[in-house]
Design goal:
176 residues, mainly beta, six-stranded mixed sheet, 4% helix
């Protein structure tokens, strides 16, 4: 993807749930959302969650990496990819989550509770994957890169060190 003059708020790899990366207000709890896909509508709506169609988790395993998600603040759409959504996200809690609540690679951004104009752009630097010892390569089922643009300046900042390791019931450190 190209160069942009926007402020980068987050650059992370997120594990898809099947073939979806969730971008949501942390309080949405999967109750309502809009599917983001280049061939579907959804522009102009106000929602609390975006379900972005991406390459699937098996393809991530074969490619050796997860879906790269970047969140920007600004107005420059150049070089971000193919626009798949342009609407508003109600971040009522002031916490924007990348990845669903059960996702170990989930990232959080904290800011002021607000309704934000958001555009989602899709791209792919992984075009094909190879299964096992097969000499054939197959196209991936969705994009490997998602760029989220929060229009204009926002006060959102990434929570570094999240997800945190927690102690299990017996005092051992666990990753979930």
């Amino acid at each position: 993807m190209g160069v942009t003059t926007n402020k980068l708020l987050c650059d992370s790899e997120i594990a898809p749930d099947g073939s979806v990366v969730v971008i949501e207000d942390v309080g949405a709890n999967g109750l309502s959302g809009v599917i983001v896909h280049p061939e579907l509508g959804g522009d102009g709506v106000v929602t609390r969650a975006l379900w972005v169609h991406t390459m699937n988790v098996h393809e991530c395993d074969l490619a050796g990496r997860l879906v790269r998600v970047r969140v920007y603040s600004g107005a420059d759409t150049r070089g971000l990819g193919v626009r798949a959504f342009d609407g508003q996200v109600d971040i009522a809690t002031g916490v924007l989550a990348l990845g669903d609540r059960h996702n170990r690679t989930r990232q959080l951004l904290f800011g002021t509770p607000q309704v934000v104009r958001v555009s989602v752009f899709l791209g792919s630097d992984i075009e094909t994957v190879q299964f096992g010892d097969s000499e054939s390569r197959y196209p991936v089922s969705g994009p490997s890169e998602v760029n989220v643009l929060l229009h204009e300046e926002t006060d959102f900042v990434q929570a570094f060190g999240y997800p945190m390791r927690r102690r299990g019931r017996r005092g051992r450190v666990s990753a979930c």
